[in-house]
Design goal:
The complex is a heterodimer of chains A (110) and B (113). With 110 residues, chain A is an all-beta fold. Chain A is 0% helix and 55% strand. In chain A, the strands form 2 sheets. In chain A, strands 2, 4, 5, 9, 10 and 11 form a 6-stranded mixed β-sheet that branches. The radius of gyration of chain A is 13 Å and the shape is globular. The mean pLDDT of chain A is 95. With 113 residues, chain B is mainly beta. Helices cover 0% and strands 53% of the residues of chain B. Chain B contains no helices and 11 strands. In chain B, the strands form 2 sheets. In chain B, strands 2, 4, 5, 6, 9, 10 and 11 form a 7-stranded mixed β-sheet that branches. Chain B has a 4-stranded antiparallel β-sheet with strand order 1-3-8-7, with no helix packed on it. Classes of the chains: A mainly beta (110), B mainly beta (113). The interface between A and B is medium-sized, with 22 and 20 residues.
């Protein structure tokens, strides 16, 4: 059973701070990694995809991948109240089956 | 460009019935995937269709099936509904591959009584 683990939270950060979201996965053959944001009552929206070790930056978001440690993270700089949502980590392994974590709830308070 | 659309948005069925859900992908997208989301299990992959063929399948019983038409529109069918099938069913489309950016539709919320 391929697993993707996330801390359910909630993770509470003040506005303007850096929010750090973490995800570990069990399938060493995993090749594709994604972070989705899901607002309550809405469908998931892709924030970042990352395929190779290292950092990938897009605006206020940075995804970090470490395949040796089987770890992927998402940093949100200058967090805004509008960033308050559940963040889902998804991994696609050699079987081409997407596996999602249960999500981390992020609360950004003014 | 219009997003992924799903119909119906809400559905109430009783145990033992069957249900068919529909998904229209973004124009030009050929890969359509289906997911089930529940509070207990989270978001789980059901299957993916590409060029009218099921290309990948998750770990769900045979009561869950799907198909894709030549215009890439897809349907998902659940037979002999169980209470545990109550969930949000999400469809997502991408250009060619699961590994590409997937765009999710608004979902169909199914309640089985």
């Amino acid at each position: 059973q391929k697993e993707v683990e996330q801390n359910s939270g909630p993770l509470s950060v003040p506005e303007g701070a850096i929010a750090s979201l973490n995800c570990t996965y069990s399938d060493r053959g995993s090749q594709s990694f994604f972070w989705y944001r899901q607002y309550s009552g809405k469908s998931p929206e892709l924030i970042m995809s990352i395929y190779s070790n290292g950092d990938k930056e897009d605006g206020r978001f940075t995804a970090q991948l470490n395949k040796a440690s089987q770890y992927v993270s998402l940093l949100i700089r200058d967090s805004q109240p509008s960033d308050s949502a559940t963040y889902l980590c998804a991994v696609i392994g050699g079987s081409y089956i997407p596996t999602f974590g249960r999500g981390t709830s992020l609360i950004v308070h003014p | 460009k219009a997003g992924v659309t799903q119909t119906p948005r809400y559905l109430i069925k009783t145990r033992g019935q069957q249900v068919t859900l529909s998904c229209s992908p973004i124009s030009g997208h050929r890969s359509v995937s289906w997911y089930q989301q529940t509070p207990g299990q989270g978001l789980q992959f059901l299957f993916e269709y590409f060029s009218e063929t099921q290309r990948n399948k998750g770990n769900f019983p045979g009561r869950f099936s799907g198909r894709q038409f030549s215009n890439s529109r897809s349907e998902m069918n659940v037979s002999t509904l169980e209470l545990g099938d109550s969930a949000l069913y999400l469809c997502a489309s991408s250009l060619e591959q699961l590994q590409e950016t997937q765009y999710f539709g608004p979902g169909t919320r199914l309640l089985v009584l």
